[in-house]
UniProtKB/TrEMBL annotation:
Belongs to the aldehyde dehydrogenase family. The active site is at E255. GO terms for molecular function: oxidoreductase activity, acting on the aldehyde or oxo group of donors, NAD or NADP as acceptor. InterPro entries: Ald_DH/histidinol_DH, Ald_DH_C, Ald_DH_CS_GLU, Ald_DH_N, Aldehyde_DH_dom. The keyword Nucleus does not apply. The keyword Protein biosynthesis does not apply. PROSITE patterns: ALDEHYDE_DEHYDR_GLU. This is Aldehyde dehydrogenase family protein. SUPFAM superfamilies: ALDH-like (SSF53720).
Amino acid sequence: MTAIPELWFDPSRCLIAGEWVKAAAGTLPLYDPSTGAEIGAIARGGATEIDAAVTAATEAFHGVWHRTPAVERGRILTRLGQLVLERVEALAMIEARDVGKPYKQARADAVALARYMEFYGGAADKLLGQTIPYMDGYTVYTLREPHGVTGHIVPWNYPMQIIGRSVGAALAAGNACVLKPAEDACLTALAFADLAKQAGLPDGVLNVVPGLGAEAGAALTAHPGLHHISFTGSVATGAAVQIAAGANVIPVTLELGGKSPQVVFDDADLDAALPFLVNAGIQNAGQTCSASSRILVQRARYDEVVEKMAARYGALRVGPAVDDLDVGPLISAKQKGLVSGFIEQGHDLQLAGQATLGDLPSGGYYVPPTLFAGVSPDHTLAQNEVFGPVQVVIPFEDEAEAIAIANGTDYGLVASVWTDSGARQMRLAKAIRAGQVFLNNYGAGGGVELPFGGIGKSGHGREKGFEALYGFTTLKTVAAFHG
Ligand code: NAD
């Protein structure tokens, strides 16, 4: 077993009430996706640790955090952002080992985590209420108040970014948090919590309980001491989380993934579009909720787009995270099985392009990035989220058909439109059902300022930007009668 050299804390413990504690059920093994080798152990948190964490958060909320001035909350988050920046290289190395993410992509996640702390640190004291003109003799105003104790269930694909946008906003708004990271990737969550302690976050305001979804996750969502849940992950688990939250009548934010299209019209600047068409599908080995897995191309440019995308697929380099190539391994043997199954389901399609897997560590969870063409919009590969480096190209005739195909899945997270026509850009931006629409780009660099979230099976509620702060508060109306 090779330990991860960059770790400065014991990864086999939970952080509860400021103390690093062992889980009653012991530990779970930790694997390196690049090699399949066992590289350590993490805590197997469960109901006992979750209960202790919710109790600690409740005490910290009432005891100190709720009364900490917004400007001071902001200062702590800003200091935390600075500490994250000072540890960027270590955090990136940890994430690369834990998630199998190529180093540069892991580093970008660490920088984004710092940026979330800067943004929410700066925003903490700018969360304003309103005064409302009302009847003579009254003064009416609104207060934005924290929910109290918020639960955060995070997946394995972008731990640092998702913790940044969810926990960062919740803390800025004055909530105390219990974080349940994914069992496949929890190391940077623990590292982040340790840095938060160093930045001066009072004990108990942020508690981290790693463990299995069915154990620690289910215990957290069912806990009656929680006042809000933020969940990112699969549709099935999200639905279960919403039902559990319903039993306690608390609000949930669900971010559940997508089948996001890029729509390429015949007047598009293809040279500008091409890098985005492919990168948005293969970044993080396609394990991205906002991955673009459907490329819709107007008939006149269809052959040209397929040919150029296929050439890029042929040139993609796949390898271990530390080699920092274009595509790393998938997160787990389970995910490799799921994605390989999807690729097999494309046997009736045109295999337009595929990367070659070279000499790779035999135990690693690699699949070849794969491009299918000639795909009908109702094919299973055009309807279901693969969560791997697989894209389909679908032809369309005109604008009406493009809109119908773009909107023709259960999801609605992100979309982009490539066209020179300003009028068409405006029409498509309105017609497409998605939480974010990009015109002549994809992702806009992932800015922390930009509200993000879905409709349909992509979920509900908004993260990032100021919208997230509103979601982590409850609005109180105060009506004073003074005659
Ligand atoms: P998942 O939904 O099972 O897990 C996500 C998180 O939820 C993890 O922390 C997990 O421990 C927790 N969890 C699991 N069961 C739970 C339960 N019953 N109660 C509370 N929490 C629970 O997702 P997964 O198994 O990690 O991945 C499966 C699929 O989910 C992927 O193929 C992909 O389609 C989707 N996914 C989406 C995103 C996204 O960003 N939208 C991220 C990861 C996975």
